[in-house]
């Protein structure tokens, strides 16, 4: 396969107010799930997770392009199409979140709100000991654990298929830019006006460049 001139160029995609809450939420949820027997730690971690989710939701409307929900929340048909392409090991590469990743983000945020909210409700006088509240809290926590495992598996799969370290990208905020080689090997996923070969300067300005293997 011909080499891609953009392989060595990295562009900033995920800002600090996306990355820090991401890792903060991962830590808070992990502590909350692991400290069920220690109520004080469990509650602090749960409220911390809820606060981080609130920040992430606000940032999803006012943050930079790839932090916004409009950039990665896709209709079901696109999510299913992406999952099918992932199974075939030929998914399109996104500089931001892919459709499956976007759906996972929405699901995880909703589950954290549900788990934390029902946990808070279970401590109030009105809902203390109410079966459906306790059941909702347990079910949302269990589903949250399942989706976290699925999320990690998806990150690993995408990293292997696209040959890029997505964990590193979420730490540094940058991803390798990839340009289109129309003569074979790569196909542009967003900007068809890209020239046959781009200089690093042009790549830095083409922040929306996406590609996938043929």
Structure in words:
This protein is mainly alpha-helical and 214 residues long. It has a domain at 16-163: Transmembrane di-heme cytochromes, Chain C (Fumarate Reductase Cytochrome B subunit), CATH 1.20.950.20. Helices cover 59% and strands 6% of the residues. Helix 5 (99-121) runs antiparallel to helix 6 (131-162). The longest helix is centred in the last third of the chain and has 32 residues, at 131-162. The protein is elongated.
Q: N-to-C SSE series? A: EHHHHHHHEEHE
What name goes with the CATH superfamily of the domain at 16-163? Answer: Transmembrane di-heme cytochromes, Chain C
- Beta content: 5-15%
Helix content: 55-70%
Mean pLDDT: 82
- Give the CATH class of the domain at 16-163: Mainly Alpha
| Low-confidence parts | 1-7, 179-214
CATH architecture of the domain at 16-163: Up-down Bundle
What summary fits the major beta sheet? 2 strands, antiparallel
Distance between the termini: 11 Å
Write down how many β-strands occur, each being a DSSP E stretch of 2 or more residues.
4
Structural class: mainly alpha
General form:
elongated
- Helical region count? 8
Lateral arrangement of strands in the main beta sheet: 1-2
CATH topology of the domain at 16-163: Fumarate Reductase Cytochrome B subunit
Instruction: Determine Rg (CA atoms, Å).
Output: 20 Å
């Amino acid at each position: 396969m011909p080499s891609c001139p953009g392989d060595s160029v990295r562009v900033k995609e995920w800002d600090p107010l996306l990355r820090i809450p991401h890792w903060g939420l991962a830590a808070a949820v992990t502590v909350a799930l692991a400290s069920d027997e220690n109520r004080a730690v469990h509650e602090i971690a749960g409220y911390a997770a809820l606060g981080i989710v609130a920040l992430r939701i606000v940032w999803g409307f006012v943050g930079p392009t790839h932090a916004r929900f409009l950039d990665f929340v896709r209709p079901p048909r696109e999510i299913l199409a992406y999952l099918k392409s992932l199974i075939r090991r030929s998914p399109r590469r996104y500089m931001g979140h892919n459709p499956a990743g976007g759906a996972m983000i929405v699901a995880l945020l909703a589950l954290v709100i549900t788990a934390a909210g029902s946990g808070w409700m279970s401590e109030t006088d009105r809902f203390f000991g109410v079966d459906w509240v306790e059941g909702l809290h347990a079910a949302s926590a269990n589903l949250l654990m399942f989706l976290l495992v699925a999320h990690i598996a998806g990150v690993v799969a995408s990293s292997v298929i696209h040959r890029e370290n997505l964990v590193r990208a979420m730490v540094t905020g940058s991803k390798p830019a990839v340009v289109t080689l129309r003569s074979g090997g790569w196909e542009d996923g967003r900007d068809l006006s890209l020239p046959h070969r781009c200089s690093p300067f042009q790549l830095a300005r083409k922040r929306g460049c996406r590609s996938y293997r043929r």
